[in-house]
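Subject: Sanity check before I submit

Could someone independently write out the structure tokens for this chain? I want to compare against mine line by line before I put it in a report. The sequence has 72 residues.
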Amino acid sequence: MPRLGFGELLVIGFVLLVVFSASRMSALGNALGKFVHSFKKASQGQGFVDVKPERTLRSPRDRDVDGDSGSS
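---
Independent answer below. Compare away.
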């Protein structure tokens, strides 16, 4: 993979500026920054919710089947 030097990056940036205009470039940069921030946050494991339930809930119908239903 070829390495990009400062000159090549400058030319690419100029072409992007001409193609997308300055106002859209700032919006693109903002979106890219938010993406990088959320990617770093996700890769560190922050922001995830533990979805493992503490206990399982059973319906009243299931409880009658498992235990004594009260009839003799």
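---
OP: Matches mine. For the report I'm noting this point. The radius of gyration is 28 Å.
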